[in-house]
Amino acid sequence: MEAKRGVRLISALIWLAVMALAACYLALTLPQKQLSSNILELLPSEGEAQISSSYADTQKDRLIFLIKSDEKQAEDFFTRLSKEKFFSQVRGKVPQAEQDEFARFWFQYRLAFVPESVIKLMKTGDRYVRSIQSMLYSPYGAPRADEMKRDPLLLARRSAVGNAGDLPSFHDGWIVIRHEGVEYRLVSAELKSPLSYDELSDAVKTLTSLCQASEAANPGMRVLMTGIPLFSASAADSTRKDIAFLGSISVAALIVFLFIAFRSLKPLFLCLISVACGVAGGLSVSLLVFSELHAVTLVMCLSLIGIATDYTTYYAAARMRAPVGESAWNTLAQLRPSLLHALLTTSITYGCILISPLPVLRQLAVFAVCGLICSCITVFVWQPFFLQNFRGRPSFVETITAKYFGLFEKSSKTALILLAVLIVFCAVGLYQVKADDSLTNLQSLNTELLKTQKEVEKISGQDFSSPRLLVKAKDDEALLVQLEKLRAQTANESGAAELRSMLPPLNSVSRQNETEALAQALYPKLEAFYQEVGLKGVEKPHYEKLTLKGFLSSAVGSGYKDLYLRKDGYSYFVLPMPKDKAFEEKLKELNIDYSKFDRRKDMETVLQVYREDLLYILLFTFALIVLTFAFKFGLAAVLGAGVSLMLSAAAGIAALGFANMSLNIFSLLALILILGIGIDYQVFFRQLSAYRKESYFALFVAAVSTILSLGILVFCSTSAVSNFGLVLSVGVLTAFLTAPIGRNK
């Protein structure tokens, strides 16, 4: 006996050390971990979708400011932005030195920027020479003598003029956008990456205050700010509030209910310890497995609160009415098979989610399985010490529970009536429910931020959410050839203005070689002309070639850098897709290797496919649970359990119809968990015959505690979590109500 007591004490101390280690790990690492909140990051990226994801990654830390103000006000705002430590780069007014470098680079590689119209003119020979002559005698901006000496064909001037419509408009060093007679100065900034949730939240608050203070101090000044970080911070703030508020409400409701049920604080205290250990263990393992966690994962994991309390509830209920003289360890020994079976089935249901391609579901599975195991171990090694002398006082909850289950003891009509009501409920609800995989049904974006983004898009002429054109080539040179075709095709198309503005002015090296040959052929004619007019010292032109990588690394091409990707042996360039449907036919005629991607719509298609795949996971989980149940209780018991599980799943989906919500992948995820929780109720209802009345009471307390923790998710601001919580809470309630159906008398 003493040896057993020593082993039990050592086990308890070892588990205490493990939990203390987990708590220390969380305290050290959790503040440093990044909390993802972009709903698109819930989704997998494969194939060319991975390319679009890589492009999206280049935009996730960028903020855009449009400033309507005078020169001094804009400079003051830009200076204050540049001093913020959370930025890695702020670009606004271009310093004079950088402008000079821009001009030097353009002149040095002028051959690379010669537009198609100038090349065509060069091919005419004498007409090009005459155009130079007319420029020389033009009263408007005639070239200087030193310019003609260094660049006799005036290719730098021709290139600048020919590309003027497609290059940013500069005014006093600022990129200026004119809209409806108003000038806006453009400032772009890159946040340091990665920023923790707190750092991102503080950065957004600081910037919002800066914009508001600048507008208040300068009447007439207006600052528009948009970017993915703003939406991420808004979603993360909303999630944190949900976790704090809904978690507090859930815990408070559980505290009140458990105290009413047991009329003692001890089970309540033990439930909180069990949940705390489950959360610490699940979160620690999740942080070890995943580089970052998604906010939606944490909110959905609130469901663990109700499930983790079940083990303590069953044990405390059994100890309430245990025979005098029976030790807490003996009671636990009788409960252990049922508790382990319940842990196994619930872990199986969560474990099946691991094969899901969605990262957020895999995170949830790891968190839940590890958390439930830790909660169960806590019950086994710690709680017998606390429940040795526990004797609960009679509670009206026991009376209500006994009366409800007593109805099934007296007559089978109760079961038939319940079945009829549930079938009608399911039929009406299922008739109304519809499947919809739209991302707007998963997460609602901040309306004020959306309004500002739409205004910035209108002013800048760019649609940040429009589909994208992904041009693909085997190498950079082939990619430039493809882009040349696009530049020529869109030269006179008004509907492709946004695309044309994003095309780099760079020619392919082969085009540069062709242009150089034309220039060398024209030079003798121009040299003779310059001699005639008395211009001496004209240099024979020497041209340098420019590659795509060289262009992107320069001040001239830095703005195009994020549009270029090199991956898996191919070069890609991302461009906005014109809305004209006929444009795609033109691309095919040009023999351009391209693909069209709309990340939002593509992900909605992916969600639909995975929702359909999840149905197979659901069927597999159901079959696995039924097999384990049949192995334990026999085939006869499977029929009643199967009816209960199917009704529970149907009722959960039917609730969506009554709530005017759509069926999506998170609804099916909830169904998988309903199967696991529902089979737990079947196990406890059938196996704990030695504690028949106490098992009724324990089943009721477990169901209500689970529903309290799950039902609160319905009020979450994230639509996907609200959907998940509604299906799960209604399904669990139905699983409890139908637990007595088909049982052996």
Question: What are its keywords?
Answer:
745 residues; alpha+beta; Alpha-Beta Plaits; 6-stranded antiparallel beta sheet; 4-stranded antiparallel beta sheet
Characterize the structure shown.
The protein is an alpha+beta fold and 745 residues long. Among the domains are: 2-32 and 232-442 and 602-737, no CATH class; 467-506 and 560-597, Alpha-Beta Plaits, CATH 3.30.70. It has 29 helices and twelve strands. Strands 2, 3, 4, 5, 6 and 7 form a six-stranded antiparallel sheet that branches. The chain has a four-stranded antiparallel sheet with strand order 10-11-9-12. A two-stranded parallel ribbon has the order 1-8. Strand 4 and strand 5 (174-179) form a beta hairpin. Helix 14 (328-352) packs antiparallel against helix 27. The two termini are 39 Å apart.
Q: Could you tell me the number of beta strands? A: 12
Level of helix content?
Answer: 55-70%
| Distance N to C terminus | 39 Å
**Major β-sheet profile:** 6 strands, antiparallel
Mean pLDDT: 82
The radius of gyration computed from the alpha-carbon positions, rounded to a whole number of angstroms, is: 35 Å
Enumerate how many helices there are, as a single number: 29
Unreliable spans: none
Category by helix and strand content: alpha+beta
Strand content: 5-15%
C-alpha geometry: elongated
